[in-house]
Structure formats: structure tokens, C-alpha cells
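Expect chain and fold; see below:
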Amino acid sequence: ALSALMPGEAGIAAGTPIVVYVEMACSSLCGDGNGTMISAPDTNRRFTLSQAHVRRTSQALESLRLDLTLMLELSQADGVNELVAAEALAAANRAVNAFIVDDPASHAAAAAIAREFFDAHRSTAAPAGGHEVHAVGHCHIDCAWLWRYCETKRKAA
């Protein structure tokens, strides 16, 4: 379906009608209950989608955005080696200067500048045995009864 959103590139003539299916979760902020949040869901409740935007995304550009964000955060973080912080900011600046919105070749050049910075600092930042990450999370016990189970999985899983 995504190729249908780019008629010039997908071989679909401009002006050809296309059908796009949208999955959306419709629930109120405090559950689906009929009258109260702990009541059974109201299966007759209706929602209206009043506005939608079609967006073309690029994994390469999203990766570049994340790299630039990380370089900026490295340049501003407390406790980061001052030389590394300065190099992060300089590399981000070079990447942004290399980037031209309508030139895909410049996107690759900007990504290469970011990659070069991270490759140069990967060995100095990581401990000898690599990183060990511990993550702890929680979920409110009330999630399972606020929404239908499929919605609970979307919100809490």
C-alpha cells in the first residue's frame, strides 16, 4: 500500500484513486467503560477520524536524525570528555552542512560523517567487556481492565 502513496515511483498514474486502510485504536483516556471506567466496554461507541496526514518516511534519514541528536546530546552532556564533546559538535556541524534536502547523495554523505565520528569513538567509549544494560519497567495493574485486551497489548506491552 505504501507504494501506492508514491504514484510517480510506483507506476501508478497520477489521479488514479487508491484505497488506504488505517488501523486505529479508539478509546477514551480512562478506559472503554460504559459510564464508568470499570464498566463493560460500550460496543456501540463511535469515533470520527477528522484529520490524517500521509507521510513518506526514510529509514536512512531517521537514522541520521538520531545520530545528529545523539551527537548534540554528547556535546552538551555533563561528564563527557571535553574533547569528545567538541568533536561530536564539530562532526554534527559538518554533517548538517553536507546535507541538502533535495539531494539524496548528500544524505549519504552526511550519514557517513556521523558514522565516521561514532566509529572513531566506539572503542574509547565502550568498556573492555562491552556494555551491560539492565532495564526495569512496570505496568499499572489496572491496564488489563481499562481497555479491551488487544488495546492493552498496544498500550502496555
